[in-house]
């Protein structure tokens, strides 16, 4: 499993640095709004941090357990997650981005992860508030609104 993690960390690092270098000539900020390099910069930066964290965690791990593939239950969870993502993509034009994201977050927490109801509702509200606050209110991005106008 160590070799798999090292390879994954190196691939993630290479892709993240590729994003950083590939968008370095784009404007980070444009007049009063984020420029075309804003999202690319932060995606690349987070990727570099995650790659380095995976590399360090793998280097410090002394166990030599083999790589395990998910059992039938784990495979069904992966399939359910992929189905939920596709359903979210199909619902965005009809319901809008925010309602579709709320439904997906609830499906993920309650249906797949089997978390308690109240913490799942609080987490979903926090995620929806952050998405609205950052992307709609602060950055002024026109996310799809759908039939609810949200």
Can you describe this structure in just a few lines?
The protein is built from five helices and two strands, in the order H-E-E-H-H-H-H. The protein is an all-alpha fold and 150 residues long.
Care to describe what's here?
There is one protein chain. With 150 residues, the protein is mainly alpha-helical. 71% of the residues lie in helices and 3% in strands. The chain contains 5 helices and 2 strands, in the order H-E-E-H-H-H-H. The protein has helices spanning 2-22, 38-60, 72-95, 97-112, 117-138; strands at 29-30, 33-34. It has a two-stranded antiparallel sheet. Strand 1 and strand 2 (33-34) form a beta hairpin. The longest helix has 24 residues, at 72-95. The radius of gyration is 19 Å and the shape is flat. 9% of the residues are buried.
Q: What is the structural class?
A: mainly alpha
The parts where pLDDT drops under 50 for at least 5 residues are none
Tell me what portion of residues adopts beta-strand conformation.
under 5%
Instruction: Sketch the major β-sheet.
Output: 2 strands, antiparallel
- How many helices? 5
Q: Which radius of gyration do the C-alpha atoms yield?
A: 19 Å
Query: Helical percent range?
Result: over 70%
N- to C-terminal distance: 44 Å
Secondary-structure element pattern, one letter each:
HEEHHHH
Shape: flat
């Amino acid at each position: 499993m160590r070799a798999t993690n090292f390879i994954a960390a190196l691939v993630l690092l290479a892709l993240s640095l590729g994003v950083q270098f590939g968008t370095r000539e784009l404007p980070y900020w444009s007049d009063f709004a984020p420029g075309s390099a804003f999202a690319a910069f932060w995606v690349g930066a987070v990727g570099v941090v995650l790659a380095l964290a995976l590399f360090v965690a793998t280097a410090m791990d002394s166990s030599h357990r083999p790589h395990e593939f998910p059992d039938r239950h784990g495979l069904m969870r992966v399939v359910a997650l992929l189905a939920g993502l596709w359903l979210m993509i199909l619902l965005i034009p009809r319901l809008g981005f925010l309602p579709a994201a709320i439904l997906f977050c609830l499906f993920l927490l309650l249906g797949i992860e089997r978390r308690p109801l109240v913490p799942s509702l609080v987490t979903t509200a926090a995620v929806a508030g952050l998405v609205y606050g950052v992307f709609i209110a602060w950055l002024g991005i026109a996310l799809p609104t759908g039939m609810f106008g949200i």
